[in-house]
Amino acid sequence: MTTDTPARLLQLLSLLQTPREWPGGELADRLRVSRRTVRRDIDRLRELGYPVQATKGSDGGYRLVAGKAMPPLVLDDEEAVAIAVGLRAGAGHALEGVDEASVRALAKLEQVLPARLRHRVSTLQAATTPLTSGDGASIAPETLTVIASTVAGQERLRFGYRAKDGIESRRLTEPYRLVSTGRRWYLVAYDLDRGDWRTFRVDRVSDPFATGARFTPRELPTGSAAEYLRRSIHRRLDSNEYTYDVTFAAPADWVAARLPAWLGRPEDIGDDDGGDGGGSCRLRASSSDPLEWVAMRLALLGCEFTVREPVALTECVRELGGRLARAGAPDLQG
Question: What pLDDT, on a 0 to 100 scale, did the predictor assign at position 65?
Answer without folding.
Answer: 81
